[in-house]
Design a protein that fits this description.
The longest helix has 27 residues, at about 170-195. The chain is globular. The protein has a single domain (about 1-195), classed as Flavodoxin domain (Rossmann fold). The protein is about 40% helix and about 20% strand. It has a 5-stranded parallel β-sheet with strand order 2-1-3-4-5, with helices on both faces. The protein is of the alpha/beta class and about 200 residues long. It is built from 6 helices and 5 strands; from the N terminus they run βαβαβαβαβαα. The chain has helices at about 20-30, 65-75, 95-100, 125-135, 150-160, 170-195; strands spanning about 1-10, 35-40, 80-85, 110-120, 140-145.
Length: about 200
């Protein structure tokens, strides 16, 4: 069973992020070979990163802070990720960057896909996230999903709750297929590295 974590990349009041996150989590849950976990950053209220050393140099040292330890365990147990992120001022959210920066080894050699929304359909935020993913030794997959702006406008300006992401269903299927291919390839490689 492949464990995929869907990360809700916004914590702001009245946010939209949890809507597409729940939609893509359901698409994953519909797959018989996927165990999906929805990770809401609201449930991991991390302080701004101020550790004296980089997480890359933690070398398996125990984590004292219980919230950071829970975040570390959640990321470590995942085989792959889908990050749902809005675009703020040509970039992704500060709370998401902070959550990413608190860890290192837990992210390594795992694939990640992206669901974006907002200005330019979140494309610029996704491009920045791809660069960060590479630095974390992750594999950012090619396919991503842009949430139709009409649904965002309906939510913000009309208070709609009957949001319809079916326009992106085909893209979601293709992205999940690609993500799971990489999950299989990288899981196999990680296991081989452990025994060699």
């Amino acid at each position: 069973m492949n464990r995929i974590a869907v990360i809700v990349g916004s914590t702001r009041q009245g946010r939209f992020a949890d809507k597409p996150a729940q939609w893509i989590a359901q698409k994953l849950a519909d797959r018989p070979d996927v165990d999906v976990e929805l990770l809401d950053l609201r449930d991991f209220p991390l302080p701004f990163f101020d550790d004296p050393v980089s997480p890359a140099w933690r070398n398996g040292a125990p984590i004292a802070d219980p919230i950071l330890r829970a975040w570390s365990e959640a990321i470590d147990r995942a085989d792959g990720f889908i990050i749902v992120s809005p675009e703020y001022n040509h970039g992704y959210t500060a709370v998401l960057k902070n959550a990413i920066d608190h860890l290192y080894a837990e992210w390594n050699r795992k694939p990640v896909g992206f669901v974006g929304y907002g200005n330019a359909s979140g494309a610029r935020a996704i491009e920045q996230l791809r660069q960060v993913a590479v630095e974390l030794e992750m594999t950012p997959i090619k396919r991503s999903i842009a949430i139709p702006v009409e649904q965002i406008k309906r939510f913000i300006f009309e208070g709609a709750t009957d949001l319809d992401f079916s326009e992106a269903d085909q893209a979601a299927g293709a992205m999940i297929d690609e993500l799971l291919w990489w999950v299989d390839a990288l899981s196999t490689a990680r296991k081989a590295a452990l025994v060699s």
